[in-house]
Amino acid sequence: MAGVVSGCSIVVAAEGQISCDLAGEAAILNLTSGVYYGLSPVGARVWNLIRRPRTVHDIRDMLLQEYDVEAERCERDLLALLRELAAEGLIEVRDGTAAQVPAADGD
């Protein structure tokens, strides 16, 4: 589902694709379309984080701890990436207003 992605959204990698690590980057194959996608090292980190459902705000906060980036830019770039992944059917986007996310375990 390619829903509207916001800071409260819950995102998770969709079924129907496979991925692998390529020297810190990620390659993703959409099994339905047969199209390959590549992600930079930061994109690959996001991809690893969304292997289980997380809110966009949780992902942003983890990235802010790991990378030297301004919070506004981090969130803007993260939302842009997640919107692209959703448009390609690589992630599911859920409304995050309900308590649907289990507690983070510090990935």
Kindly describe this structure.
- By secondary structure, this protein is α+β, with helices and mostly antiparallel strands.
- It has a single domain (10-94), classed as Outer Surface Protein A, domain 3, CATH 3.90.930.
- Helix content is 35%, strand content 25%.
- It contains 3 helices and 6 strands, in the order ββββαβααβ.
- The protein has helices at 41-49, 56-66, 71-87, and strands at residues 10-13, 17-22, 25-30, 35-39, 54-55, 91-94.
- The strands form 2 sheets. The protein has a 3-stranded antiparallel β-sheet with strand order 5-1-6. A 3-stranded antiparallel β-sheet has the order 2-3-4.
- Helix 2 (56-66) crosses helix 3 (71-87).
- The radius of gyration is 13 Å and the shape is globular.
- The relative contact order is 0.27.
- Classified by CATH, the class is Alpha Beta
Structural class: alpha+beta
Strand order of the largest sheet: 5-1-6
Count of extended strands = 6
Write down the CATH topology: Outer Surface Protein A, domain 3
The figure for the number of domains is 1
Features:
alpha+beta, three-stranded antiparallel sheet, Outer Surface Protein A, domain 3, 107 residues, 3 helices, 6 strands
A few lines on this structure:
The protein has 107 residues and is an alpha+beta fold.
Helix and strand topology:
Blueprint lengths: L9 E4 L3 E6 L2 E6 L4 E5 L1 H9 L4 E2 H11 L4 H17 L3 E4 L13
Helix pairs in contact: 2-3
